[in-house]
Amino acid sequence: MIDVRTITDEEIPAYVAAMRTGFAGHADEEAIEVARPSIDPDRTLAAFDGRQVVGTARAFASDMTIPGDRTIPVAGVTNVTVLPTHRRRGLLTEMMRQQLDDVVARGEPLAVLIAAEAPIYGRFGYGAAVWRATLRVDSRAAAFAHPVPARTLEMVDLPTMRTVAPSVFEASRAGRPGALARSEGMWDRRCGVRAAAEELAELRKRFHVLARDDAGTIDGYMSYDHRGEWDGMRPNGTLVVRELCAASPDAAAALWHHALTMDWCVRVEADDRPVDDGLPWLLRDQRQVVTTDVTDFVWVRVLDVPAALSARGYGSTDRLVIEVDDRFRPDLGGRVVLDASPVGATCEPTTEAPDLTLDAAHLGAIYLGGTPLSRIAAAGRVREHTPGAVARADRLFLHSPAPWCSTWF
Questions:
Q1: Is residue 323 within 8 Å of 389, Cβ to Cβ?
Q2: Which of 103, 217, 236, 396 places its Cα 20 to 30 Å from the Cα of 261?
Q3: Catalytic site residues?
């Protein structure tokens, strides 16, 4: 008999060990102690086969930027695993069920996660809402189209980054849907305050640079490492951007210029970039910026449709009746009327005839404004009852800039 329940403090070591095994890794005492501060037992589920932990899932409270330069409370879902010996027994489904019950009870309108495997979470009502791009640039040919904005750049160490980076990050995420708030614990992990020896060794290989404006205000930072290679006596290295965060376009331009003019590097690579990154428009030849990969990143699950749709901003003024088909949690679906405009919105249950019907996962996919409903409709996954309703939904929901999240969780 498999029992799914929240864990106790004493069960954290067994939980971490099972979670690491589920991700094809191992847990030693150091890994357990590094993970412990981030685990809230009241929000951490485990599946027990007798006394053995065979499945894991936890959540944490955060907030996310949404269209309209606003934020909304979210449950960040992570650590979801099932041991290879216990697959196909319904453990994941039961953990997802209990977890969503808890998130709803806490009044969080959204749950968000990063899907290790794409086919898994759609059946639980999650939809891919944030996408990430990988960029590659030939820095030898990356001439800037215009003079680089004046910025003072400063190389700093990890302790300094821990002090100054959070405020820059908060300023940068204000206008970018999908950006997730970072807790103090997340910053400690990113800056080596609380990290396993292997993580700390990788962090210490990185370089960190700050950008200051004329007034001395820090409005950007970049962390990168250098893969040194030589072709005979000619440098053939790669600068790998691990994070570039800017609270202003000028700071972003100055930091990109720093990366693209680095000695001994002939190319720059950057993961976790927004799909609408402005880098190509900084260069005389935009083709030097090659997008080598675009993948889904953050998935969104809408749990309180009226609250979630009332919270965000919209691109036009319209009134739309939306029917949400929520097969995993039918009690969360139903029909709502959205009365929206760029300055605000109301959303409430209704018995009116729907303009369109869509799956809960597809509502999650369009919620942050980066996925056109018309694209989903083109695959035959949306029922349009009122002609033109899908196009009207696109005008309401689509947002610029595109959703982006640079935080792994």
A1: no
A2: 217
A3: 121, 409
Q: What's the CA gap between 327 and 312, in Å, rounded?
A: 24
What the block records as the tokens of 4 is 């799914």
Task: Report CA-CA distances (Å) from 372 to 35, 366, 368.
Answer: 38, 6, 10
Alpha-helical (H) ranges within 62-196 are 91-105, 158-173, 184-190
**Per-residue model confidence as pLDDT tens digits over 329-382:** 999 999 999 999 999 999 999 999 999 999 999 999 999 999 999 999 999 999
For residue 117, the one-letter residue type is E
What is the chain's mean pLDDT, rounded?
Answer: 97
DSSP state of 123: G
Q: What angle do CA 392, 304, 94 make, to 5 degrees?
A: 120
pTM flag (> 0.85): yes
DSSP per-residue codes, 251-280: HHHHHHHHHHT-TTEEEEEEEEE-TT-SHH
Residue 235 confidence (pLDDT): 87
Identify the CA nearest to 314 among candidates 394, 384, 391: 394
pLDDT exceeds cutoff 90 at 1: no
Q: What is the pLDDT of residues 110-130, one digit of tens each?
A: 999 999 999 999 999 999 999
Size (the chain), residues: 409
Average pLDDT over residues 21-49: 95
Enumerate residues 6+ apart whose C-beta is below 8 A from 85: 54
**How many alpha carbons lie under 13 Å from residue 216 in its C-beta half-sphere?**
0
Residue 268 has phi, psi (to 5 degrees) of -125, 135
Provide the pLDDT confidence category of residue 104 given band limits of 50, 70 and 90: very high
- Pairing between β-strand 230-231 and β-strand 218-227 as defined by DSSP bridges: unpaired
Question: Quick check: bond before 401 cis, omega within 30?
Answer: yes
Spatial CB neighbours of 142, under 8 Å, sequence gap ≥ 6 = 260, 268, 283, 285, 288, 289
Q: How far apart are CA 315 and CA 318, in angstroms?
A: 10
Q: For residue 163, name the pLDDT band (cuts at 50, 70, 90).
A: very high
Cα distance between residue 267 and residue 261, in whole Å: 10
Q: How far is CA 162 from CA 90, 121, 151, 168, 194, in A?
A: 42, 34, 21, 11, 11
Q: What gap in Å lies between CA 90 and CA 96, rounded to an integer?
A: 10
DSSP state letter for 392: H
